[in-house]
Structure formats: C-alpha cells, structure tokens
Design brief:
alpha/beta; VC0802-like; 2 domains; eight-stranded mixed sheet; 13 helices; globular; binds aspartic acid; binds magnesium ion
Amino acid sequence: MQVYKFGGASVRSAEGIKNIYRIVSEVKDQLFIVISAMGKTTNALEGVLDNFMKADHQASLDKLAEVETFHKDIITELFERPEIGLAAIEPSFEELRNYVTTGIGDDYDRWYDRLVSYGEIISTLIVSAYLSESGIENVWLDLRSLIVTDSNFREANVRMEESQARLQESADFTKNRIYIGQGFIGANIKGDPTTLGREGSDYSAAVVGNLLNAESVTIWKDVQGVLNADPRLFNDAVHIPELTYLDAVELAYSGAQIIHPKTIKPLENKQIPLYVRPFGSPKEAGSVIKQTIDQPINVPVLIVRKNQVLITVRPRDFSFVLEESLSKAFLVMNKHRLKVAMIQSSAISISVCVDNSRYLAGAIDELGNDFKVTYNDGLELLTIRGITDEIVHKTTEGRVILLTQRTRRSGRFLMKEI
Ligand code: ASP
Ligand code: MG
C-alpha cells in the first residue's frame, strides 16, 4: 500500500479537491490518504481560539462563522449534491460552537489542540464525501482515536506501539482499498485531542506509512519537488531529483520549508522512500528521498530560516563553568520548547539562535534567574552547503552579520532580516 499526503494548499479550493480526485483515480493500489486543514484554516482557528481564551465569545463565534462560510462555499462549488457535504461537516461546527460558547479557556495548549484539530477533521470529511460522491469508495477514519500520543499538547509525540495496533485494526485493506485520515492530529491515551506541531501533517503521513508498512509515502506539494533553494528568495533555484534521508534531515533542520523535520525518522526506520511530487503536474517525477542514491547532490544548497532570535547569556556571578552553564541554559530552553538552530560559546557567554515563538518571553524570564540575558530579534539564518567564496559574496554582501560559523563544506550566517 501507499500513503499520499495532500497539504493545505492542495485543498484550499474546489479546484484543488477535484485535482485530488484526478490523482487518486489513477491509483489502483491500496491507498491511505492523509490531508491537512484547508488553506489557512489552522490560522483562522487559532483566531477563534484566541478570542475564546480572552472569553470574548461573540468574537470567537464570529471568527468561527467565517471558517464555516469558507468551507460551505467550497462544498457548494464542489459537490453535485452539496447537501451531502454540508451534512458531513455540520456536526463538527456544532461541536465547535458548543465549545466556544460553554467552555472555559483555562489551559491554552490543551484548548488549542481540542479546537484547532477540527480543521483536519472537517477537510477530511469533505474530501471523503466528495470522493464517494464521485465514485471512489473510501473509508474515513478519525485519527484522534487511532494515533496515540503523549500529552505534550501542541507538539505531541506519537507513541508508535500503541498506535500501531489501533491503526492496523482500523485500516484493514482486506476490507477496503482506500482510507482517509487527518494529518497533524492524534490524542493522548485518555482521548484528549493533541496536535503534532505546525506543519505536522508530513510527520503524520510518515507515521502512518511506518505503522502500516507502506511501500512508499508521497507528499504532494505546490512545488516541482525538492529544490536547492527557495525559489521565492533565490531566482536560480534548481531541482534536486534524489536525496538521502540524511540530506533531508539536514535540510529540514536548517529550515527548509519543504518537509517537516520529524518526517524522516519513521520512514528511515523502515526504509520507506519518500516522494515529493508536484500537485499541479502529477505526471512529473518530483524528488525522492531514500537510503542510497545514484546521483549525489552536486549543487550548492541554500536554506534560509526566518524569524530568528539570538539570545546571549552570561552567568551573573562570573564563575563561568561552561558545562554547568550550558546544561542549566539548555534545561530552561528545552522546558520552554525553544528550537535551537545554532550555538556558540565563549569564555564568558553562551549565544544561541532560536526560532521566535510565543514561548520566548517565558524562557528569557527564567534564564534571567541565573544569567544576564540579552537578545536580538528580527534575524534570519542562512545555511549554505557546498560553500564557495562566490556564493558567500553573492548572498551576504552588504548584510549585517551577527554570527558566522564555517566548516570546509558549509557555512551559516546569522543576519539581520531585510
Ligand atoms: N494544518 C496544520 C498547519 O497548518 C498542519 C499542516 O498543514 O501540516 O500547521
Ligand atoms: Mg499546511
């Protein structure tokens, strides 16, 4: 069997969903389809949540009504008999309305997962009903009861063993050929919904592929495949047809938006190849990520990670012991879920570059107990693999650089955003 994953951009319009129909109708094999929330629905549901947390029920309901209209418009355009699609999503919106009018917004992370996970529930209900209406029989699964995670709300980790038994039992390919489930979501052992981190649907697809021993996992994207640089930032980006798992992990951690960093491990564990293919031209091969490749990457790779913050800490008492300070500082950063992209230490200080996030303030606050803390925000981290002086010149000329790290093959430049 194979796993196909369609992201938010693929399902943001009726036309996109019709394209999913075309792609899926070509597949004769057993198929598990993983789908994200439609378009910008996750952001919109975050808006619903924020108003709910402020106990502004009316604003929350208003935002929710916008989300509902967006989905209803797509259904009306898409279905031959829209009443089928509308009936499929009605209970979910009813549940959401109920939550935001009667719930008490105590724990942000927990409420986030409870509410925002509906984006994927609703998108999969629509696609499943549409494929059925169009003659592609399929079974919709609620992965909130099949993918078991820990209780690390908003960034939950999948418990593979518990999930395997449940998923294998429900996705029985001797009974049905096509199953549809949600990216991004699961639930802890008590059944409280969880989410796996923003853009986590790729990770879900990899987890499903691992648990069901898929022959391959394919992520359908609105790009040609994996490129050596973001074409919106560098105009001479080229396509990379083959990458190793290791290449992909490096790219993802450096901030390449193409695949979620957690995606590779479940696939590598079972040696399942990952295809990244263009949603708009399904006949093209795209890129493949696997254990060994025939044509190693022979172009420089450039990755920009935006919205970075450089934090520098100095112990308050001058008794700087690097090991001690490092472990203290990292304990705090890990607790506050900071994603560290770069580390530098000196005789009296430690500097780390982290993603800007809503957790930052809490971390800086707590670091302040033991350290004198300073920070710069509005930065971007450029990673260059296959570095040459010419590329460095071209990409960093005239830029304000706060930190550089260079090895023989690669370089990293933390710069002010422009
Ligand atoms: N819908 C989620 C998000 O926008 C997950 C995903 O798209 O992968 O972050
Ligand atoms: Mg998405």
